[in-house]
Amino acid sequence: MVDLTLDELKKSNGKNGNPSYLAYKGVIYDVSDSTWFTDGEHFDIHSCGQDLTEEISEAPHDDDVFSNIQKIGKLI
User: Fold this and answer.
1) What domain range includes position 19?
2) Please, which residues bridge with residue 44 across strands?
3) How does pLDDT run across 39-76, given as a tens digit for each residue?
4) Burial status of residue 43 (CB atoms within 10 A of its CB: 0-12, 13-18, 19 or more)
5) What spatial distance separates the first Cα and last Cα of the chain, rounded to whole Å?
6) Count: domains in the chain
7) Which of 40, 44, 47, 70 has the greatest count of CB atoms below 10 A from its CB?
8) What is the CATH classification number for the domain harbouring 15?
9) In whole angstroms, how far apart are CA 16 and each of 12, 13, 19?
10) Is the overall model pTM greater than 0.70, yes or no?
């Protein structure tokens, strides 16, 4: 498990060979292998390297979508 600050998380944006990580409710998820994220982007709406807690509240799904995504750490 890794602990990342928001500034450290920003580097994991899925661009230029970087992994695709995002944070939600204080947990960091690795979506690098997810078909729902291409080059760190989800339908050009959500971007990796960010805390998406607020954005997900406006999404057409609930947080159950995170149940099958690998948790790799926490946002500190």
Assistant:
1) 2-75
2) none
3) 777 666 678 898 988 877 666 566 677 778 889 999 99
4) exposed
5) 12
6) 1
7) 40
8) 3.10.120.10
9) 10, 9, 9
10) yes
